[in-house]
Protein backbone atom coordinates (compact mmCIF):
# COMPACT_ATOMS: atom_id res chain seq x y z
CA UNK A 1 0.00 0.00 0.00
CA UNK A 2 2.85 2.41 0.84
CA UNK A 3 4.32 1.96 -2.63
CA UNK A 4 0.95 2.67 -4.25
CA UNK A 5 0.54 5.84 -2.17
CA UNK A 6 4.01 7.02 -3.18
CA UNK A 7 3.30 6.36 -6.85
CA UNK A 8 -0.06 8.16 -6.63
CA UNK A 9 1.58 11.21 -5.04
CA UNK A 10 4.24 11.32 -7.75
CA UNK A 11 1.64 11.11 -10.52
CA UNK A 12 -0.44 13.90 -9.00
CA UNK A 13 2.62 16.11 -8.67
CA UNK A 14 3.70 15.62 -12.25
CA UNK A 15 0.24 16.39 -13.64
CA UNK A 16 0.71 19.83 -12.13
CA UNK A 17 4.27 20.29 -13.44
CA UNK A 18 4.52 19.93 -17.23
CA UNK A 19 8.30 20.24 -17.21
CA UNK A 20 8.80 17.13 -15.11
CA UNK A 21 10.84 19.03 -12.50
CA UNK A 22 9.54 20.92 -9.46
CA UNK A 23 10.82 22.63 -6.36
CA UNK A 24 9.35 23.44 -2.98
CA UNK A 25 8.84 27.02 -1.85
CA UNK A 26 8.92 26.33 1.87
CA UNK A 27 11.91 26.87 4.15
CA UNK A 28 12.75 23.17 3.87
CA UNK A 29 13.20 23.37 0.08
CA UNK A 30 14.96 20.43 -1.51
CA UNK A 31 15.02 19.09 -5.00
CA UNK A 32 14.21 15.43 -5.16
CA UNK A 33 16.55 13.60 -7.52
CA UNK A 34 15.11 10.32 -8.61
CA UNK A 35 16.08 7.25 -10.48
CA UNK A 36 14.61 6.50 -13.88
CA UNK A 37 13.72 3.35 -15.73
CA UNK A 38 14.18 5.07 -19.07
CA UNK A 39 17.16 6.86 -20.61
CA UNK A 40 17.48 9.37 -17.79
CA UNK A 41 20.82 10.32 -16.30
CA UNK A 42 20.60 11.77 -12.80
CA UNK A 43 17.53 13.85 -13.72
CA UNK A 44 16.73 16.12 -10.76
CA UNK A 45 13.08 15.17 -10.49
CA UNK A 46 10.86 12.32 -9.38
CA UNK A 47 10.27 10.02 -12.36
CA UNK A 48 6.67 9.07 -13.05
CA UNK A 49 7.40 5.76 -14.68
CA UNK A 50 6.40 3.23 -11.97
CA UNK A 51 6.75 0.02 -13.93
CA UNK A 52 9.55 -1.22 -11.67
CA UNK A 53 8.21 0.43 -8.47
CA UNK A 54 11.61 2.01 -8.01
CA UNK A 55 10.61 4.75 -5.57
CA UNK A 56 12.27 3.10 -2.58
CA UNK A 57 15.53 4.24 -4.13
CA UNK A 58 14.81 7.67 -2.67
CA UNK A 59 15.25 6.50 0.89
CA UNK A 60 18.79 5.33 0.21
CA UNK A 61 20.15 8.48 -1.41
CA UNK A 62 22.95 9.99 0.66
CA UNK A 63 24.27 13.50 0.54
CA UNK A 64 27.35 14.25 -1.53
CA UNK A 65 29.69 16.96 -0.27
CA UNK A 66 29.19 20.15 -2.31
CA UNK A 67 32.79 21.14 -1.63
CA UNK A 68 34.23 18.05 -3.31
CA UNK A 69 37.03 18.76 -5.75
CA UNK A 70 36.22 19.76 -9.29
CA UNK A 71 37.39 17.76 -12.31
CA UNK A 72 38.01 19.68 -15.47
CA UNK A 73 35.03 21.89 -14.78
CA UNK A 74 32.35 19.38 -13.73
CA UNK A 75 31.68 18.87 -10.05
CA UNK A 76 30.26 15.67 -8.61
CA UNK A 77 26.47 15.40 -8.53
CA UNK A 78 24.84 16.75 -5.37
CA UNK A 79 22.04 14.56 -4.04
CA UNK A 80 20.02 14.84 -0.87
CA UNK A 81 19.05 12.62 2.03
CA UNK A 82 15.45 11.64 2.73
CA UNK A 83 14.80 9.82 6.03
CA UNK A 84 12.18 7.62 4.42
CA UNK A 85 10.02 7.35 1.35
CA UNK A 86 6.93 7.90 3.54
CA UNK A 87 7.90 11.55 3.91
CA UNK A 88 6.93 12.09 0.27
CA UNK A 89 3.38 10.95 0.97
CA UNK A 90 3.04 13.19 4.03
CA UNK A 91 4.04 16.37 2.17
CA UNK A 92 1.41 18.43 0.44
CA UNK A 93 0.88 18.12 -3.29
CA UNK A 94 1.68 21.83 -3.52
CA UNK A 95 5.40 21.05 -3.45
CA UNK A 96 5.12 19.94 -7.09
CA UNK A 97 3.21 23.03 -8.25
CA UNK A 98 6.23 25.24 -8.92
CA UNK A 99 6.85 26.45 -12.48
CA UNK A 100 9.30 24.67 -14.72
CA UNK A 101 13.00 25.41 -14.74
CA UNK A 102 14.12 28.62 -16.42
CA UNK A 103 16.59 28.14 -19.23
CA UNK A 104 17.08 27.74 -22.96
CA UNK A 105 14.30 25.92 -24.78
CA UNK A 106 14.80 23.68 -27.82
CA UNK A 107 15.89 25.40 -31.01
CA UNK A 108 13.20 26.18 -33.58
CA UNK A 109 13.17 25.48 -37.32
CA UNK A 110 15.35 28.01 -39.08
CA UNK A 111 17.59 28.56 -36.06
CA UNK A 112 21.13 27.26 -35.87
CA UNK A 113 21.52 23.92 -34.05
CA UNK A 114 22.77 24.25 -30.47
CA UNK A 115 25.79 22.32 -29.21
CA UNK A 116 26.11 22.07 -25.42
CA UNK A 117 29.60 21.36 -24.07
CA UNK A 118 30.10 20.21 -20.47
CA UNK A 119 33.55 21.13 -19.20
CA UNK A 120 36.52 23.40 -19.90
CA UNK A 121 39.41 20.95 -19.96
CA UNK A 122 41.75 19.98 -22.78
CA UNK A 123 39.16 18.06 -24.78
CA UNK A 124 36.35 20.59 -24.36
CA UNK A 125 38.51 23.62 -25.19
CA UNK A 126 40.09 22.03 -28.26
CA UNK A 127 36.56 21.24 -29.44
CA UNK A 128 35.33 24.76 -28.70
CA UNK A 129 38.31 26.34 -30.45
CA UNK A 130 37.59 24.65 -33.77
CA UNK A 131 33.78 24.70 -33.80
CA UNK A 132 32.28 26.56 -36.77
CA UNK A 133 29.96 29.09 -35.12
CA UNK A 134 28.52 30.04 -38.49
CA UNK A 135 26.86 26.61 -38.41
CA UNK A 136 26.25 26.15 -34.67
CA UNK A 137 25.28 28.07 -31.57
CA UNK A 138 27.35 26.84 -28.64
CA UNK A 139 26.72 26.77 -24.89
CA UNK A 140 29.54 25.85 -22.52
CA UNK A 141 28.69 24.86 -18.93
CA UNK A 142 31.39 24.62 -16.28
CA UNK A 143 32.06 25.83 -12.70
CA UNK A 144 35.35 27.33 -13.91
CA UNK A 145 35.65 29.85 -16.73
CA UNK A 146 39.13 28.91 -17.91
CA UNK A 147 41.28 26.08 -19.19
CA UNK A 148 44.31 25.01 -17.12
CA UNK A 149 47.56 24.26 -18.95
CA UNK A 150 48.30 21.34 -16.64
CA UNK A 151 51.87 20.46 -17.81
CA UNK A 152 53.13 23.72 -16.28
CA UNK A 153 50.90 23.73 -13.20
CA UNK A 154 53.61 22.35 -10.87
CA UNK A 155 55.82 25.33 -11.72
CA UNK A 156 53.26 27.73 -10.25
CA UNK A 157 53.41 26.09 -6.81
CA UNK A 158 56.94 27.40 -6.13
CA UNK A 159 56.75 30.70 -8.03
CA UNK A 160 58.55 29.71 -11.23
CA UNK A 161 55.43 30.82 -13.11
CA UNK A 162 52.54 33.06 -12.16
CA UNK A 163 49.12 31.47 -11.91
CA UNK A 164 47.63 33.52 -14.74
CA UNK A 165 50.29 32.10 -17.08
CA UNK A 166 48.62 28.66 -17.03
CA UNK A 167 44.97 29.79 -17.12
CA UNK A 168 43.28 30.64 -20.43
CA UNK A 169 39.75 32.17 -20.29
CA UNK A 170 37.33 30.04 -22.28
CA UNK A 171 35.89 33.14 -23.98
CA UNK A 172 39.35 33.77 -25.44
CA UNK A 173 39.41 30.26 -26.82
CA UNK A 174 35.95 30.59 -28.42
CA UNK A 175 34.99 34.25 -28.78
CA UNK A 176 31.42 33.41 -29.83
CA UNK A 177 30.66 32.59 -26.18
CA UNK A 178 31.08 36.29 -25.42
CA UNK A 179 29.91 37.92 -28.66
CA UNK A 180 27.24 35.74 -30.31
CA UNK A 181 23.70 36.57 -29.11
CA UNK A 182 22.71 32.88 -28.97
CA UNK A 183 25.93 31.42 -27.57
CA UNK A 184 26.69 31.47 -23.86
CA UNK A 185 29.07 30.42 -21.14
CA UNK A 186 27.31 29.43 -17.90
CA UNK A 187 29.27 29.27 -14.65
CA UNK A 188 27.48 26.23 -13.24
CA UNK A 189 27.69 22.49 -12.63
CA UNK A 190 25.70 19.98 -14.62
CA UNK A 191 23.73 17.76 -12.25
CA UNK A 192 21.61 15.79 -14.69
CA UNK A 193 20.98 14.85 -18.30
CA UNK A 194 17.67 13.81 -19.87
CA UNK A 195 18.60 12.14 -23.14
CA UNK A 196 14.95 11.66 -24.16
CA UNK A 197 14.10 15.35 -23.88
CA UNK A 198 17.55 16.48 -25.03
CA UNK A 199 18.04 18.63 -21.92
CA UNK A 200 20.75 19.13 -19.33
CA UNK A 201 20.01 20.35 -15.80
CA UNK A 202 22.41 22.66 -14.04
CA UNK A 203 22.92 24.42 -10.76
CA UNK A 204 25.21 27.11 -9.44
CA UNK A 205 26.08 28.31 -5.97
CA UNK A 206 26.69 32.07 -5.93
CA UNK A 207 27.08 32.55 -2.15
CA UNK A 208 24.32 35.11 -2.01
CA UNK A 209 24.49 36.59 -5.48
CA UNK A 210 21.33 34.93 -6.82
CA UNK A 211 17.75 34.79 -5.48
CA UNK A 212 17.89 31.04 -4.76
CA UNK A 213 20.73 28.86 -3.52
CA UNK A 214 21.55 26.68 -5.34
CA UNK A 215 20.13 28.30 -8.49
CA UNK A 216 18.88 25.72 -11.00
CA UNK A 217 18.17 25.94 -14.71
CA UNK A 218 18.03 23.77 -17.81
CA UNK A 219 19.47 23.96 -21.32
CA UNK A 220 18.05 22.11 -24.33
CA UNK A 221 20.56 20.76 -26.83
CA UNK A 222 20.69 19.43 -30.35
CA UNK A 223 24.07 17.84 -29.75
CA UNK A 224 25.65 17.20 -26.35
CA UNK A 225 29.42 16.89 -25.80
CA UNK A 226 30.39 15.54 -22.37
CA UNK A 227 33.98 16.44 -21.54
CA UNK A 228 33.61 16.23 -17.76
CA UNK A 229 37.16 15.14 -17.03
CA UNK A 230 38.06 13.02 -14.03
CA UNK A 231 38.88 13.44 -10.36
CA UNK A 232 41.89 12.34 -8.28
CA UNK A 233 41.95 8.73 -7.16
CA UNK A 234 42.14 8.28 -3.40
CA UNK A 235 41.46 4.49 -3.35
CA UNK A 236 39.16 5.06 -0.39
CA UNK A 237 42.12 5.72 1.91
CA UNK A 238 41.03 7.37 5.13
CA UNK A 239 42.07 11.01 5.55
CA UNK A 240 43.25 11.75 2.01
CA UNK A 241 40.49 14.17 1.09
CA UNK A 242 40.69 15.91 4.45
CA UNK A 243 44.47 16.41 4.73
CA UNK A 244 46.15 16.05 1.33
CA UNK A 245 46.47 18.57 -1.49
CA UNK A 246 45.75 17.60 -5.07
CA UNK A 247 47.37 19.22 -8.11
CA UNK A 248 44.85 19.51 -10.93
CA UNK A 249 43.47 23.05 -10.68
CA UNK A 250 44.92 26.53 -10.28
CA UNK A 251 43.31 26.84 -6.85
CA UNK A 252 45.08 23.60 -5.83
CA UNK A 253 48.44 25.14 -6.79
CA UNK A 254 47.57 28.33 -4.90
CA UNK A 255 46.77 26.38 -1.73
CA UNK A 256 50.00 24.33 -2.01
CA UNK A 257 52.04 27.51 -2.43
CA UNK A 258 50.42 29.22 0.56
CA UNK A 259 50.93 26.15 2.76
CA UNK A 260 54.58 25.75 1.71
CA UNK A 261 55.45 29.40 2.41
CA UNK A 262 53.46 29.40 5.66
CA UNK A 263 55.41 26.39 6.96
CA UNK A 264 58.71 28.03 6.02
CA UNK A 265 57.86 31.18 7.97
CA UNK A 266 56.35 29.38 10.98
CA UNK A 267 59.41 27.19 11.32
CA UNK A 268 61.56 30.27 11.97
CA UNK A 269 59.57 31.29 15.06
CA UNK A 270 61.49 31.11 18.35
CA UNK A 271 60.81 28.19 20.65
CA UNK A 272 59.75 25.74 17.93
CA UNK A 273 61.08 22.28 18.93
CA UNK A 274 63.50 20.73 16.46
CA UNK A 275 61.24 17.74 15.74
CA UNK A 276 58.31 20.03 15.01
CA UNK A 277 60.50 22.16 12.74
CA UNK A 278 61.52 19.04 10.81
CA UNK A 279 57.89 17.99 10.46
CA UNK A 280 56.76 21.42 9.26
CA UNK A 281 59.46 21.45 6.58
CA UNK A 282 58.95 17.87 5.39
CA UNK A 283 57.18 17.87 2.00
CA UNK A 284 55.77 14.47 1.06
CA UNK A 285 54.59 13.63 -2.46
CA UNK A 286 52.50 10.50 -3.01
CA UNK A 287 52.66 9.07 -6.53
CA UNK A 288 55.62 8.65 -8.86
CA UNK A 289 53.93 9.58 -12.13
CA UNK A 290 54.92 12.61 -14.24
CA UNK A 291 53.01 15.06 -12.02
CA UNK A 292 54.57 13.77 -8.80
CA UNK A 293 58.08 13.66 -10.26
CA UNK A 294 57.82 17.13 -11.81
CA UNK A 295 56.50 18.64 -8.59
CA UNK A 296 59.33 16.99 -6.63
CA UNK A 297 61.85 18.40 -9.12
CA UNK A 298 60.37 21.90 -8.83
CA UNK A 299 60.45 21.68 -5.03
CA UNK A 300 64.09 20.57 -5.16
CA UNK A 301 65.00 23.56 -7.34
CA UNK A 302 63.13 25.90 -5.01
CA UNK A 303 65.00 24.53 -2.00
CA UNK A 304 68.45 24.60 -3.60
CA UNK A 305 68.18 28.08 -5.14
CA UNK A 306 65.70 30.10 -3.10
CA UNK A 307 65.22 28.58 0.34
CA UNK A 308 68.98 28.44 0.95
CA UNK A 309 69.25 32.17 0.18
CA UNK A 310 66.10 33.51 1.83
CA UNK A 311 65.45 31.11 4.72
CA UNK A 312 68.98 30.49 5.93
CA UNK A 313 67.88 29.75 9.51
CA UNK A 314 65.94 26.63 8.47
CA UNK A 315 67.57 25.69 5.16
CA UNK A 316 69.00 22.44 6.53
CA UNK A 317 65.63 21.21 7.80
CA UNK A 318 63.53 21.26 4.63
CA UNK A 319 63.27 17.86 2.91
CA UNK A 320 61.29 16.26 0.07
CA UNK A 321 60.13 12.62 0.07
CA UNK A 322 58.52 10.92 -2.93
CA UNK A 323 56.57 7.76 -2.09
CA UNK A 324 55.60 5.31 -4.85
CA UNK A 325 54.24 1.78 -4.60
CA UNK A 326 56.24 0.55 -7.60
CA UNK A 327 58.68 2.33 -9.92
CA UNK A 328 58.56 6.04 -10.67
CA UNK A 329 57.60 7.01 -14.24
CA UNK A 330 56.57 3.44 -15.04
CA UNK A 331 55.46 4.34 -18.59
CA UNK A 332 58.91 5.69 -19.52
CA UNK A 333 61.91 3.83 -20.92
CA UNK A 334 63.91 1.83 -18.35
CA UNK A 335 67.02 3.93 -18.94
CA UNK A 336 65.07 7.14 -18.39
CA UNK A 337 63.56 5.80 -15.18
CA UNK A 338 67.04 4.98 -13.89
CA UNK A 339 68.29 8.45 -14.85
CA UNK A 340 65.35 10.11 -13.07
CA UNK A 341 65.91 8.04 -9.92
CA UNK A 342 69.61 8.92 -9.76
CA UNK A 343 69.05 12.59 -10.55
CA UNK A 344 66.28 13.11 -7.98
CA UNK A 345 68.37 11.37 -5.32
CA UNK A 346 71.33 13.62 -6.16
CA UNK A 347 69.04 16.67 -5.83
CA UNK A 348 68.07 15.64 -2.30
CA UNK A 349 64.71 13.99 -3.01
CA UNK A 350 64.26 10.89 -0.88
CA UNK A 351 62.57 8.03 -2.78
CA UNK A 352 60.54 5.52 -0.80
CA UNK A 353 58.65 2.39 -1.80
CA UNK A 354 55.40 1.98 0.06
CA UNK A 355 51.62 1.99 0.08
CA UNK A 356 49.71 4.50 2.17
CA UNK A 357 47.31 2.98 4.67
CA UNK A 358 45.98 6.09 6.47
CA UNK A 359 46.48 9.83 6.42
CA UNK A 360 46.44 11.79 9.66
CA UNK A 361 46.69 15.59 10.14
CA UNK A 362 50.45 15.48 10.78
CA UNK A 363 51.58 12.05 9.54
CA UNK A 364 50.84 9.26 7.11
CA UNK A 365 50.90 5.58 7.99
CA UNK A 366 52.21 3.06 5.45
CA UNK A 367 51.05 -0.54 5.12
CA UNK A 368 54.19 -1.80 6.86
CA UNK A 369 53.41 0.36 9.89
CA UNK A 370 55.93 3.11 9.13
CA UNK A 371 54.94 6.60 10.25
CA UNK A 372 55.96 9.49 7.99
CA UNK A 373 55.47 12.95 9.55
CA UNK A 374 54.75 15.78 7.12
CA UNK A 375 54.05 19.48 6.94
CA UNK A 376 52.85 19.44 3.33
CA UNK A 377 51.26 16.41 1.63
CA UNK A 378 50.61 16.40 -2.12
CA UNK A 379 48.58 13.49 -3.54
CA UNK A 380 49.19 12.56 -7.18
CA UNK A 381 48.16 8.94 -7.79
CA UNK A 382 46.20 9.21 -11.03
CA UNK A 383 42.57 9.95 -11.80
CA UNK A 384 39.27 8.10 -12.04
CA UNK A 385 35.65 8.82 -13.02
CA UNK A 386 33.91 11.61 -11.14
CA UNK A 387 30.70 11.17 -9.17
CA UNK A 388 28.86 13.00 -11.95
CA UNK A 389 30.07 10.50 -14.55
CA UNK A 390 29.26 7.57 -12.27
CA UNK A 391 25.71 8.87 -11.81
CA UNK A 392 24.90 8.96 -15.53
CA UNK A 393 22.75 6.11 -16.81
CA UNK A 394 24.95 5.61 -19.86
CA UNK A 395 27.04 2.66 -21.09
CA UNK A 396 30.33 2.41 -19.22
CA UNK A 397 33.73 1.27 -20.42
CA UNK A 398 36.43 -0.40 -18.34
CA UNK A 399 37.27 1.71 -15.32
CA UNK A 400 33.83 3.34 -15.12
CA UNK A 401 34.25 5.91 -17.88
CA UNK A 402 31.43 6.77 -20.29
CA UNK A 403 31.54 4.19 -23.07
CA UNK A 404 31.93 5.43 -26.63
CA UNK A 405 32.31 3.92 -30.09
CA UNK A 406 34.98 4.71 -32.67
CA UNK A 407 33.35 8.05 -33.52
CA UNK A 408 33.17 9.10 -29.82
CA UNK A 409 29.39 8.62 -29.81
CA UNK A 410 27.61 7.22 -26.78
CA UNK A 411 25.67 4.15 -27.99
CA UNK A 412 21.98 3.64 -27.16
CA UNK A 413 21.28 7.40 -26.94
CA UNK A 414 20.92 9.98 -29.67
CA UNK A 415 23.14 13.03 -30.16
CA UNK A 416 25.41 12.46 -27.15
CA UNK A 417 29.20 12.37 -27.48
CA UNK A 418 31.89 11.97 -24.82
CA UNK A 419 35.63 12.54 -24.91
CA UNK A 420 38.65 13.20 -22.75
CA UNK A 421 39.34 11.64 -19.35
CA UNK A 422 35.64 10.87 -18.75
CA UNK A 423 35.30 8.66 -21.86
CA UNK A 424 36.69 5.33 -22.96
CA UNK A 425 36.13 2.89 -25.80
CA UNK A 426 33.60 0.17 -25.11
CA UNK A 427 34.89 -3.40 -25.01
CA UNK A 428 32.97 -4.38 -28.16
CA UNK A 429 34.96 -1.85 -30.20
CA UNK A 430 38.07 -3.96 -29.68
CA UNK A 431 40.06 -0.90 -28.65
CA UNK A 432 41.86 -0.29 -25.36
CA UNK A 433 40.81 2.51 -23.04
CA UNK A 434 43.24 5.35 -23.70
CA UNK A 435 45.28 6.86 -20.85
CA UNK A 436 44.13 10.06 -19.16
CA UNK A 437 46.63 12.33 -20.89
CA UNK A 438 46.35 15.89 -22.17
CA UNK A 439 47.45 14.85 -25.66
CA UNK A 440 44.75 12.16 -25.83
CA UNK A 441 42.04 14.66 -24.82
CA UNK A 442 43.31 17.29 -27.23
CA UNK A 443 43.44 14.88 -30.17
CA UNK A 444 39.92 13.64 -29.42
CA UNK A 445 38.67 17.23 -29.29
CA UNK A 446 40.30 17.99 -32.63
CA UNK A 447 38.78 14.89 -34.23
CA UNK A 448 35.27 15.49 -32.87
CA UNK A 449 35.10 19.14 -33.91
CA UNK A 450 36.10 18.20 -37.46
CA UNK A 451 33.31 15.61 -37.40
CA UNK A 452 30.80 18.20 -36.13
CA UNK A 453 31.77 20.75 -38.76
CA UNK A 454 31.41 18.05 -41.41
CA UNK A 455 27.93 16.93 -40.35
CA UNK A 456 26.87 20.54 -39.80
CA UNK A 457 27.77 21.34 -43.40
CA UNK A 458 25.41 18.50 -44.40
CA UNK A 459 22.54 20.05 -42.39
CA UNK A 460 22.72 17.22 -39.83
CA UNK A 461 23.39 19.39 -36.79
CA UNK A 462 19.82 19.36 -35.50
CA UNK A 463 18.60 16.81 -32.98
CA UNK A 464 17.81 13.32 -34.31
CA UNK A 465 19.22 14.15 -37.75
CA UNK A 466 22.34 11.96 -37.83
CA UNK A 467 20.69 8.86 -39.26
CA UNK A 468 22.04 7.83 -42.68
CA UNK A 469 24.79 10.49 -42.49
CA UNK A 470 28.23 9.02 -43.26
CA UNK A 471 30.67 9.93 -40.48
CA UNK A 472 33.89 8.99 -42.22
CA UNK A 473 36.87 7.33 -40.57
CA UNK A 474 36.73 6.56 -36.82
CA UNK A 475 39.12 8.16 -34.37
CA UNK A 476 42.64 6.73 -34.27
CA UNK A 477 45.12 7.74 -31.58
CA UNK A 478 48.85 7.78 -32.24
CA UNK A 479 51.02 8.47 -29.22
CA UNK A 480 53.53 11.28 -29.81
CA UNK A 481 55.73 10.54 -26.81
CA UNK A 482 56.11 11.65 -23.19
CA UNK A 483 58.15 14.32 -21.44
CA UNK A 484 58.88 15.17 -17.82
CA UNK A 485 61.21 17.62 -16.11
CA UNK A 486 63.19 16.43 -13.08
CA UNK A 487 64.71 19.72 -11.93
CA UNK A 488 68.03 21.56 -12.29
CA UNK A 489 67.64 22.10 -16.04
CA UNK A 490 67.25 18.37 -16.70
CA UNK A 491 64.33 16.54 -18.29
CA UNK A 492 63.30 13.28 -19.95
CA UNK A 493 62.00 12.89 -23.50
CA UNK A 494 60.58 9.51 -24.52
CA UNK A 495 59.46 9.44 -28.17
CA UNK A 496 58.38 5.79 -28.27
CA UNK A 497 54.83 5.22 -29.50
CA UNK A 498 54.13 2.64 -26.78
CA UNK A 499 55.73 1.23 -23.66
CA UNK A 500 57.08 -1.84 -25.49
CA UNK A 501 58.05 -0.12 -28.74
CA UNK A 502 61.49 1.10 -29.74
CA UNK A 503 62.23 4.76 -30.26
CA UNK A 504 64.30 7.77 -29.31
CA UNK A 505 64.87 8.42 -25.60
CA UNK A 506 66.77 11.46 -24.33
CA UNK A 507 67.73 12.76 -20.90
CA UNK A 508 69.64 15.81 -19.68
CA UNK A 509 69.92 19.48 -20.58
CA UNK A 510 68.98 19.01 -24.27
CA UNK A 511 65.80 17.21 -23.17
CA UNK A 512 65.03 20.09 -20.80
CA UNK A 513 65.41 22.57 -23.68
CA UNK A 514 63.10 20.42 -25.84
CA UNK A 515 60.61 20.16 -22.97
CA UNK A 516 60.45 23.93 -22.45
CA UNK A 517 60.32 24.70 -26.19
CA UNK A 518 57.55 22.17 -26.83
CA UNK A 519 55.32 23.38 -24.01
CA UNK A 520 55.93 27.03 -24.82
CA UNK A 521 54.55 26.41 -28.31
CA UNK A 522 51.62 24.40 -26.93
CA UNK A 523 50.40 27.16 -24.59
CA UNK A 524 47.02 28.16 -26.00
CA UNK A 525 47.40 31.92 -26.64
CA UNK A 526 50.20 34.29 -27.61
CA UNK A 527 49.38 36.28 -24.49
CA UNK A 528 50.13 33.34 -22.21
CA UNK A 529 53.20 32.34 -24.21
CA UNK A 530 54.54 35.82 -23.54
CA UNK A 531 53.70 35.49 -19.84
CA UNK A 532 55.44 32.10 -19.59
CA UNK A 533 58.58 33.29 -21.41
CA UNK A 534 58.83 36.41 -19.24
CA UNK A 535 58.24 34.41 -16.05
CA UNK A 536 60.99 31.94 -16.95
CA UNK A 537 63.42 34.76 -17.72
CA UNK A 538 62.51 36.63 -14.51
CA UNK A 539 63.06 33.49 -12.43
CA UNK A 540 66.51 32.90 -13.93
CA UNK A 541 67.60 36.50 -13.33
CA UNK A 542 65.89 37.43 -10.05
CA UNK A 543 64.83 34.10 -8.54
CA UNK A 544 61.36 32.97 -7.51
CA UNK A 545 58.89 35.24 -5.76
CA UNK A 546 58.31 34.11 -2.17
CA UNK A 547 55.47 36.50 -1.27
CA UNK A 548 52.59 34.78 0.53
CA UNK A 549 49.36 36.46 -0.52
CA UNK A 550 46.01 35.40 0.91
TrEMBL record:
<dbReference type="Pfam" id="PF22366">
    <property type="entry name" value="NDH2_C"/>
</dbReference>
<comment type="function">
    <text>Alternative NADH-ubiquinone oxidoreductase which catalyzes the oxidation of mitochondrial NADH does not translocate protons across the inner mitochondrial membrane.</text>
</comment>
<keyword id="KW-0285">Flavoprotein</keyword>
<keyword id="KW-0496">Mitochondrion</keyword>
<feature type="domain" description="FAD/NAD(P)-binding">
    <location>
        <begin position="114"/>
        <end position="445"/>
    </location>
</feature>
<dbReference type="GO" id="GO:0005743">
    <property type="term" value="C:mitochondrial inner membrane"/>
</dbReference>
<dbReference type="Pfam" id="PF07992">
    <property type="entry name" value="Pyr_redox_2"/>
</dbReference>
<keyword id="KW-0274">FAD</keyword>
<dbReference type="GO" id="GO:0005777">
    <property type="term" value="C:peroxisome"/>
</dbReference>
<keyword id="KW-0809">Transit peptide</keyword>
<protein>
    <recommendedName>
        <fullName>NADH:ubiquinone reductase (non-electrogenic)</fullName>
        <ecNumber>1.6.5.9</ecNumber>
    </recommendedName>
</protein>
<feature type="region of interest" description="Disordered">
    <location>
        <begin position="7"/>
        <end position="30"/>
    </location>
</feature>
<keyword id="KW-0999">Mitochondrion inner membrane</keyword>
<dbReference type="GO" id="GO:0050136">
    <property type="term" value="F:NADH dehydrogenase (quinone) (non-electrogenic) activity"/>
</dbReference>
<keyword id="KW-0560">Oxidoreductase</keyword>
<keyword id="KW-0576">Peroxisome</keyword>
<keyword id="KW-0521">NADP</keyword>
<keyword id="KW-0520">NAD</keyword>
<keyword id="KW-0472">Membrane</keyword>
<feature type="domain" description="External alternative NADH-ubiquinone oxidoreductase-like C-terminal">
    <location>
        <begin position="479"/>
        <end position="545"/>
    </location>
</feature>
<dbReference type="InterPro" id="IPR054585">
    <property type="entry name" value="NDH2-like_C"/>
</dbReference>
<dbReference type="InterPro" id="IPR036188">
    <property type="entry name" value="FAD/NAD-bd_sf"/>
</dbReference>
<comment type="similarity">
    <text>Belongs to the NADH dehydrogenase family.</text>
</comment>
<dbReference type="InterPro" id="IPR045024">
    <property type="entry name" value="NDH-2"/>
</dbReference>
<dbReference type="InterPro" id="IPR023753">
    <property type="entry name" value="FAD/NAD-binding_dom"/>
</dbReference>
Amino acid sequence: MALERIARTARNGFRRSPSGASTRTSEKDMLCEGASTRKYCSLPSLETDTRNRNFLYLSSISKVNHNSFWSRGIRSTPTYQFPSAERIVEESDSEYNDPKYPGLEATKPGEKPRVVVLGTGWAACRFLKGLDTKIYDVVCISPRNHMVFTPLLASTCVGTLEFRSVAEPVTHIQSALATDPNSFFYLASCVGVDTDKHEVYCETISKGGLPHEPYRFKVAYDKLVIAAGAEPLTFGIKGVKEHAFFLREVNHAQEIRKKLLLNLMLSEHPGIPEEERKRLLHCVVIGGGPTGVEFSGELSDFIMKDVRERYTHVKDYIKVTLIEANEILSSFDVGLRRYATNHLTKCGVRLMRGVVKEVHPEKIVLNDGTDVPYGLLVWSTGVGPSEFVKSLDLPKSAGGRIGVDGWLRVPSVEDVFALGDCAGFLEQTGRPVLPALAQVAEREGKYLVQLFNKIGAQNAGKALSLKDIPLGEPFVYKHLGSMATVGRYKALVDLRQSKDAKGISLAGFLSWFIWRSAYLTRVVSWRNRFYVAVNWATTIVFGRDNSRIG
